[in-house]
């Protein structure tokens, strides 16, 4: 049975308290849907850029943003696939959370399959590795150094089953979601169950554990920023042992690193939100507006493109034009958008 060993140090408890306080502020903040969607989109782009760049992806933030908007870019196919794959994995995570599905081995395997699509042979993508695995460091002019040796391949199914059972049990035991996410990240990286894509799958799984337990912070954070800003510190923190048994002795130092990073990222989110809270809607109303998923898609499109028509809405929502017009009228009524032009040339822009 998987039973991680760690101490709840004063540093961990202090950071968890600060995170909980920031969560209250962020959850209650009253900001315009356009602002929230923009911040959420930026978070997805930052998550994807930093998580793939850690593994050597060469695309910059602007190129990742272009791929998010489904634009074509001039770059190596593998780099494009890796970014598109991570974006698809994050969409899948949102779907799992929306449907309130339990995190199972099948879910983890699906995340891995999405992350490694077209970059890993089909017999390995979404499947546990059939042989040994090593994490090595290559430096020019120096012998190759083995940093970590994963457990034997025949141990992987049992280790993963025990690990996923612990994830399910952690909610019943009311373990803090941030601790659960940190342990999920480390344990998947420690088992190293796949031939490739272990790091990206581990980071995506940590995000899923936070989202699924109500610690999504309105999906405005990107913890990958913290890892990628100081990669040597990330590697040092996660390499807490040369093999699986060594890593299981005590993971307190990793959790201190992980939780501190999460606190710093959530502080950044709070600092981005607070200046927006004072902005009034229509100069009078100061309220958080709750929109339907369809309306959020319209606002997100409008925020990216700058203008939208009934035809655009019909395409975005895959609905009849009459339904699209009704959706636009509802948004116009609550003064989130305003009409420009008349008749067939009518289009809408943001009212903010």
Can you characterise this structure?
With about 350 residues, the chain is mainly α. It folds into two domains: about 10-275, Fic-like fold; about 295-350, Orthogonal Bundle (Arc Repressor Mutant, subunit A), CATH 1.10.10.10. It has helices spanning about 10-30, 35-55, 60-70, 75-100, 105-115, 155-170, 175-190, 200-210, 225-230, 230-240, 245, 250-275, 295-305, 310-315, 320-335, and strands spanning about 135, 145-150, 335-340, 345-350. Strand 3 and strand 4 form a beta hairpin. The longest helix has 26 residues, at about 250-275. The chain is globular.
Put the structure in a nutshell:
The chain has 15 helices and 4 strands.
Strand-helix topology:
Blueprint: H1 10-28, H2 33-54, H3 61-68, H4 77-98, H5 105-116, E1 134-137, E2 145-149, H6 156-172, H7 177-191, H8 198-212, H9 224-229, H10 231-238, H11 244-247, H12 252-277, H13 293-305, H14 310-317, H15 321-333, E3 337-340, E4 347-350
Antiparallel strand pairs: 1-2, 3-4
Helix pairs in contact: 1-12, 2-3, 2-4, 2-13, 4-5, 4-8, 5-8, 6-7, 7-8, 7-12, 14-15
List how many beta strands DSSP finds. 4
Characterize the main sheet. Answer: 2 strands, antiparallel
| Topology as a string of helices (H) and strands (E) | HHHHHEEHHHHHHHHHHEE
Shape: globular
Radius of gyration, CA atoms, in whole angstroms: 22 Å
Assign the CATH architecture of the largest domain: Orthogonal Bundle
Helix content: 55-70%
Count of domain modules: 2
Annotated CATH topology of the largest domain: Fic-like fold
How much of the sequence lies in strands comes to under 5%
Distance between the amino and carboxyl termini = 54 Å
Mean pLDDT: 90
Number of helices: 15
CATH homology-level superfamily of the largest domain = Fido-like domain
Report the structural category: mainly alpha
So what's the CATH class of the largest domain? Answer: Mainly Alpha
Spans of 5+ residues with little confidence (pLDDT < 50)?
Answer: 280-287
Spatial ordering of strands, largest sheet: 1-2
């Amino acid at each position: 049975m998987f039973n991680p060993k760690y101490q709840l140090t004063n540093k961990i408890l202090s950071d968890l308290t600060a995170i909980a306080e920031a969560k209250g502020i962020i959850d209650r903040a009253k900001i315009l849907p356009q602002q929230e969607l923009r911040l959420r989109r930026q978070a997805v782009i930052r998550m994807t850029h930093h998580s793939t760049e850690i593994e050597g992806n060469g695309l910059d933030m602007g190129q990742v943003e272009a791929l998010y908007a489904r634009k074509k870019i001039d770059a190596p196919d593998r780099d494009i696939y890796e970014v598109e794959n991570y974006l698809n994995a994050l969409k899948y995570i949102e779907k799992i959370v929306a449907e309130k599905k339990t995190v199972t081995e099948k879910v983890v395997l699906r995340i891995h399959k999405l992350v490694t699509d077209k970059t890993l042979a089909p017999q390995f993508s979404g499947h546990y590795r059939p042989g040994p695995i090593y994490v090595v460091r290559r430096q020019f002019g120096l012998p190759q150094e083995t940093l970590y040796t994963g457990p034997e391949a025949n141990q992987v199914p049992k280790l993963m089953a025990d690990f996923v059972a612990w994830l399910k049990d952690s909610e019943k035991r009311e373990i803090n979601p941030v601790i659960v996410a940190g342990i999920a990240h480390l344990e998947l990286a420690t088992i190293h169950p796949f031939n490739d894509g272990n790091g990206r799958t581990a980071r995506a799984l940590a995000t899923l554990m936070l989202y699924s337990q109500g610690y999504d912070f309105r999906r405005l954070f990107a913890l990958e920023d913290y890892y990628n800003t100081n990669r040597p510190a990330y590697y040092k923190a996660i390499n807490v042992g040369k093999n699986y048994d060594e890593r299981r002795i005590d993971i307190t130092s990793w959790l201190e690193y992980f939780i501190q990073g999460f606190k710093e990222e959530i502080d950044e989110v709070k600092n981005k939100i607070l200046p927006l809270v004072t902005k009034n809607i229509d100069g009078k109303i100061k309220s958080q507006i709750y929109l339907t998923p369809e309306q959020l898609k319209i606002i997100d499109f409008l925020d990216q493109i700058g203008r939208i028509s009934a035809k655009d809405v019909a395409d975005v929502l895959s609905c009849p034009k009459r339904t699209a017009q009704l959706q636009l009228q509802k948004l116009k009524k609550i003064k989130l958008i305003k009409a420009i032009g008349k008749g067939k040339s009518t289009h809408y822009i943001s009212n903010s």
